Amino acid sequence: MLQNLHMHSAFCDGNSTPEEIVRIAIERGFDSLGFSSHAPTPFGTSCEMRDSDAYVAEIMRLKELYAGRLEIFLGAELDYFSAEFAKKYSFDYTLGGVHMALTDEGEFVEFDHSAKMSEEYITRALRGDGERFAELYYRTMADMPNKISADVVAHFDLVSKFSEKRPDLFNANGKRYRTAALEALHAVRERMEVFEINTGAVARGHRSTPYPAPFLLSEMRALNCKLIISSDCHDPAFIDCHFKEAKEYIKAAGFDTVYHLSASGFVGEKI
Ligand SMILES: [Zn+2]
Ligand SMILES: [Zn+2]
User: Fold this and answer.
1) Residue 85, Cα to own-chain centre: how many angstroms?
2) Which of 41, 79, 121, 262 lies at a CB distance of 3.0 to 4.6 Å from 109, suitable for a disulfide?
3) Domains of the chain by range and CATH?
4) Residue 219 near residue 182 (C-beta atoms within 8 A)
5) Which tens digit of pLDDT belongs to each residue from 45-66?
6) Distance of alpha carbon 36 from alpha carbon 9, whole angstroms
7) pTM metric for this prediction
8) Cα 163 to averaged position of ligand 2 atoms, centre (Å)
Protein backbone atom coordinates (compact mmCIF):
# COMPACT_ATOMS: atom_id res chain seq x y z
CA MET A 1 0.00 0.00 0.00
CA LEU A 2 1.52 3.29 -1.08
CA GLN A 3 0.02 6.28 0.72
CA ASN A 4 1.04 9.79 1.70
CA LEU A 5 -1.09 11.71 4.20
CA HIS A 6 1.03 14.85 4.42
CA MET A 7 0.60 16.91 1.24
CA HIS A 8 0.52 20.66 0.74
CA SER A 9 -0.95 22.28 -2.37
CA ALA A 10 -1.37 25.80 -3.73
CA PHE A 11 -4.26 26.25 -1.26
CA CYS A 12 -1.52 26.84 1.34
CA ASP A 13 2.24 26.89 0.71
CA GLY A 14 2.57 24.09 -1.86
CA ASN A 15 3.46 24.78 -5.49
CA SER A 16 0.83 22.70 -7.35
CA THR A 17 -2.92 22.35 -7.57
CA PRO A 18 -4.45 19.33 -5.84
CA GLU A 19 -5.43 17.87 -9.22
CA GLU A 20 -1.83 18.10 -10.52
CA ILE A 21 -0.76 16.27 -7.37
CA VAL A 22 -3.42 13.59 -7.85
CA ARG A 23 -2.20 12.93 -11.41
CA ILE A 24 1.42 12.58 -10.26
CA ALA A 25 0.37 10.28 -7.42
CA ILE A 26 -1.41 7.99 -9.90
CA GLU A 27 1.65 8.00 -12.21
CA ARG A 28 3.90 7.02 -9.30
CA GLY A 29 1.63 4.12 -8.32
CA PHE A 30 0.06 5.52 -5.16
CA ASP A 31 -3.02 3.73 -3.84
CA SER A 32 -4.20 6.65 -1.77
CA LEU A 33 -3.43 10.22 -0.85
CA GLY A 34 -4.42 12.62 1.91
CA PHE A 35 -4.38 16.39 1.56
CA SER A 36 -3.29 18.27 4.66
CA SER A 37 -3.35 22.02 4.07
CA HIS A 38 -2.03 24.15 6.91
CA ALA A 39 -4.95 25.18 9.12
CA PRO A 40 -5.30 28.88 9.92
CA THR A 41 -4.09 30.20 13.27
CA PRO A 42 -4.80 33.56 14.91
CA PHE A 43 -1.34 34.72 13.75
CA GLY A 44 -2.08 34.39 10.00
CA THR A 45 1.39 33.15 9.03
CA SER A 46 2.31 32.98 5.34
CA CYS A 47 1.99 29.17 5.06
CA GLU A 48 -1.66 28.94 6.21
CA MET A 49 -4.55 28.34 3.81
CA ARG A 50 -6.62 31.43 3.02
CA ASP A 51 -9.79 29.95 1.52
CA SER A 52 -10.66 26.80 3.42
CA ASP A 53 -14.17 26.51 1.91
CA ALA A 54 -12.66 26.34 -1.59
CA TYR A 55 -10.03 23.84 -0.37
CA VAL A 56 -12.61 21.49 1.12
CA ALA A 57 -14.86 21.76 -1.96
CA GLU A 58 -11.96 20.99 -4.32
CA ILE A 59 -10.75 17.93 -2.40
CA MET A 60 -14.32 16.60 -2.22
CA ARG A 61 -14.66 17.11 -6.00
CA LEU A 62 -11.42 15.19 -6.65
CA LYS A 63 -12.45 12.43 -4.26
CA GLU A 64 -15.49 11.75 -6.42
CA LEU A 65 -13.81 12.33 -9.77
CA TYR A 66 -10.91 9.94 -9.10
CA ALA A 67 -12.86 7.28 -7.17
CA GLY A 68 -11.65 3.83 -8.22
CA ARG A 69 -8.29 5.18 -9.42
CA LEU A 70 -6.97 6.82 -6.23
CA GLU A 71 -8.46 6.89 -2.76
CA ILE A 72 -8.39 10.51 -1.58
CA PHE A 73 -8.76 11.68 2.01
CA LEU A 74 -9.67 15.17 3.15
CA GLY A 75 -7.32 16.23 5.92
CA ALA A 76 -5.72 19.26 7.48
CA GLU A 77 -2.48 19.95 9.30
CA LEU A 78 -3.57 21.53 12.54
CA ASP A 79 -1.28 23.66 14.62
CA TYR A 80 -1.34 24.01 18.40
CA PHE A 81 -3.23 27.28 17.77
CA SER A 82 -5.78 25.85 15.27
CA ALA A 83 -8.38 24.54 17.73
CA GLU A 84 -11.18 26.79 16.44
CA PHE A 85 -10.61 25.87 12.81
CA ALA A 86 -10.66 22.13 13.51
CA LYS A 87 -14.34 22.35 14.49
CA LYS A 88 -15.41 23.91 11.17
CA TYR A 89 -15.28 20.87 8.88
CA SER A 90 -15.64 17.14 9.01
CA PHE A 91 -12.15 15.95 8.06
CA ASP A 92 -11.31 12.31 7.32
CA TYR A 93 -8.21 12.78 9.49
CA THR A 94 -6.00 15.54 10.88
CA LEU A 95 -2.30 15.89 11.56
CA GLY A 96 -1.31 17.84 14.66
CA GLY A 97 1.97 19.70 14.98
CA VAL A 98 3.75 22.61 16.62
CA HIS A 99 5.06 25.27 14.25
CA MET A 100 5.01 28.28 16.57
CA ALA A 101 4.73 29.12 20.26
CA LEU A 102 4.52 31.94 22.75
CA THR A 103 7.22 32.44 25.36
CA ASP A 104 6.31 33.06 29.03
CA GLU A 105 6.64 36.76 28.21
CA GLY A 106 4.16 36.40 25.33
CA GLU A 107 6.76 36.69 22.54
CA PHE A 108 5.85 34.88 19.32
CA VAL A 109 8.42 32.45 17.87
CA GLU A 110 8.38 30.05 14.90
CA PHE A 111 10.25 26.77 14.62
CA ASP A 112 10.39 25.85 10.93
CA HIS A 113 10.97 29.14 9.13
CA SER A 114 14.76 29.18 8.62
CA ALA A 115 17.95 28.74 10.62
CA LYS A 116 18.46 32.50 10.48
CA MET A 117 15.01 33.19 11.94
CA SER A 118 15.55 30.56 14.66
CA GLU A 119 18.77 32.32 15.57
CA GLU A 120 16.96 35.66 15.75
CA TYR A 121 14.19 34.26 17.95
CA ILE A 122 16.76 32.68 20.27
CA THR A 123 18.59 35.99 20.61
CA ARG A 124 15.52 38.20 20.88
CA ALA A 125 12.96 36.09 22.79
CA LEU A 126 15.00 33.47 24.66
CA ARG A 127 17.97 35.45 26.01
CA GLY A 128 20.36 33.73 23.63
CA ASP A 129 19.71 30.31 25.17
CA GLY A 130 19.10 27.85 22.31
CA GLU A 131 18.17 25.03 24.69
CA ARG A 132 15.35 27.23 26.02
CA PHE A 133 14.08 27.54 22.44
CA ALA A 134 13.97 23.72 22.16
CA GLU A 135 12.39 23.41 25.64
CA LEU A 136 9.67 25.89 24.65
CA TYR A 137 8.96 23.79 21.56
CA TYR A 138 8.66 20.55 23.53
CA ARG A 139 6.58 22.17 26.29
CA THR A 140 4.14 23.30 23.60
CA MET A 141 4.21 19.84 21.98
CA ALA A 142 3.52 18.18 25.35
CA ASP A 143 0.43 20.38 25.73
CA MET A 144 -0.78 19.92 22.13
CA PRO A 145 -3.22 17.03 22.79
CA ASN A 146 -4.93 19.22 25.42
CA LYS A 147 -5.50 21.97 22.85
CA ILE A 148 -6.38 20.14 19.64
CA SER A 149 -7.77 16.74 18.84
CA ALA A 150 -5.63 15.35 15.99
CA ASP A 151 -5.22 11.79 14.68
CA VAL A 152 -1.50 11.86 13.90
CA VAL A 153 1.42 13.61 15.59
CA ALA A 154 3.26 15.45 12.81
CA HIS A 155 7.07 15.87 12.75
CA PHE A 156 7.51 15.31 16.48
CA ASP A 157 10.98 16.92 16.61
CA LEU A 158 10.50 19.67 14.03
CA VAL A 159 12.56 22.04 16.21
CA SER A 160 15.66 20.07 15.15
CA LYS A 161 15.06 20.90 11.45
CA PHE A 162 18.26 22.94 11.13
CA SER A 163 20.36 21.08 13.71
CA GLU A 164 22.49 19.13 11.21
CA LYS A 165 23.70 22.25 9.43
CA ARG A 166 23.54 24.62 12.38
CA PRO A 167 24.55 22.59 15.46
CA ASP A 168 25.46 25.87 17.15
CA LEU A 169 21.77 26.85 17.63
CA PHE A 170 21.39 24.26 20.43
CA ASN A 171 22.81 20.83 21.18
CA ALA A 172 20.28 18.32 19.83
CA ASN A 173 22.34 15.50 21.38
CA GLY A 174 22.66 17.15 24.78
CA LYS A 175 20.97 16.22 28.04
CA ARG A 176 18.68 19.26 28.27
CA TYR A 177 17.40 18.72 24.75
CA ARG A 178 16.86 14.98 25.13
CA THR A 179 15.14 15.33 28.51
CA ALA A 180 12.68 17.90 27.12
CA ALA A 181 11.99 15.76 24.03
CA LEU A 182 11.44 12.52 25.97
CA GLU A 183 9.18 14.20 28.55
CA ALA A 184 7.07 15.60 25.72
CA LEU A 185 6.91 12.21 24.01
CA HIS A 186 5.61 10.53 27.17
CA ALA A 187 3.02 13.29 27.67
CA VAL A 188 1.78 13.16 24.07
CA ARG A 189 1.70 9.35 24.03
CA GLU A 190 -0.81 9.36 26.90
CA ARG A 191 -3.39 10.84 24.51
CA MET A 192 -2.19 9.92 20.98
CA GLU A 193 -0.77 6.77 19.39
CA VAL A 194 -0.08 7.46 15.69
CA PHE A 195 3.15 9.30 14.89
CA GLU A 196 4.57 10.35 11.58
CA ILE A 197 7.91 9.48 10.00
CA ASN A 198 8.32 12.66 8.00
CA THR A 199 10.80 12.87 5.10
CA GLY A 200 10.07 16.53 4.24
CA ALA A 201 13.31 17.98 5.56
CA VAL A 202 15.29 15.33 3.64
CA ALA A 203 13.53 16.35 0.40
CA ARG A 204 14.40 19.99 1.09
CA GLY A 205 18.04 19.25 1.89
CA HIS A 206 17.93 20.26 5.57
CA ARG A 207 18.46 16.79 7.02
CA SER A 208 19.91 13.44 5.96
CA THR A 209 17.40 11.38 7.99
CA PRO A 210 13.63 11.82 8.54
CA TYR A 211 11.96 13.06 11.71
CA PRO A 212 12.06 11.80 14.41
CA ALA A 213 15.67 11.28 15.55
CA PRO A 214 16.78 7.69 16.38
CA PHE A 215 16.66 8.17 20.18
CA LEU A 216 13.01 9.24 19.90
CA LEU A 217 12.18 6.44 17.50
CA SER A 218 13.56 3.88 20.00
CA GLU A 219 11.40 5.37 22.73
CA MET A 220 8.36 5.33 20.39
CA ARG A 221 9.01 1.62 19.88
CA ALA A 222 9.12 1.07 23.65
CA LEU A 223 5.85 3.01 24.00
CA ASN A 224 4.12 0.97 21.24
CA CYS A 225 3.50 3.96 19.00
CA LYS A 226 2.03 3.36 15.54
CA LEU A 227 3.93 4.90 12.62
CA ILE A 228 2.90 6.26 9.24
CA ILE A 229 5.41 7.36 6.59
CA SER A 230 4.76 10.67 4.84
CA SER A 231 6.69 13.23 2.85
CA ASP A 232 5.29 16.60 4.02
CA CYS A 233 5.44 17.44 0.38
CA HIS A 234 5.20 20.98 -1.02
CA ASP A 235 6.31 19.90 -4.51
CA PRO A 236 4.76 16.70 -5.95
CA ALA A 237 8.11 15.76 -7.52
CA PHE A 238 9.03 14.68 -3.96
CA ILE A 239 5.76 12.91 -3.20
CA ASP A 240 7.51 9.62 -2.34
CA CYS A 241 10.94 11.05 -1.49
CA HIS A 242 12.99 8.82 0.84
CA PHE A 243 10.08 6.39 1.49
CA LYS A 244 12.18 3.24 0.94
CA GLU A 245 14.93 4.52 3.21
CA ALA A 246 12.34 5.51 5.82
CA LYS A 247 11.13 1.91 5.99
CA GLU A 248 14.67 0.69 6.58
CA TYR A 249 15.11 3.45 9.17
CA ILE A 250 12.13 2.31 11.24
CA LYS A 251 13.02 -1.38 10.83
CA ALA A 252 16.43 -0.62 12.30
CA ALA A 253 14.64 0.84 15.34
CA GLY A 254 12.73 -2.43 15.85
CA PHE A 255 9.42 -1.64 14.12
CA ASP A 256 7.93 -4.35 11.89
CA THR A 257 4.68 -2.62 10.94
CA VAL A 258 3.74 0.60 9.19
CA TYR A 259 0.21 2.05 9.31
CA HIS A 260 -2.09 3.42 6.62
CA LEU A 261 -5.36 5.26 6.86
CA SER A 262 -8.36 3.35 5.49
CA ALA A 263 -12.06 4.17 5.43
CA SER A 264 -12.33 2.34 8.76
CA GLY A 265 -9.30 3.88 10.48
CA PHE A 266 -5.59 3.11 10.69
CA VAL A 267 -4.55 -0.40 9.66
CA GLY A 268 -1.14 -2.03 9.99
CA GLU A 269 0.94 -3.61 7.24
CA LYS A 270 4.06 -5.72 7.90
CA ILE A 271 7.25 -4.33 6.41
ZN1 LIG B 1 4.17 21.04 9.60
ZN1 LIG C 1 3.30 20.04 6.56
Assistant:
1) 17
2) 121
3) 3-270 (3.20.20.140)
4) yes
5) 999 999 999 999 999 999 999 9
6) 8
7) 0.96
8) 19
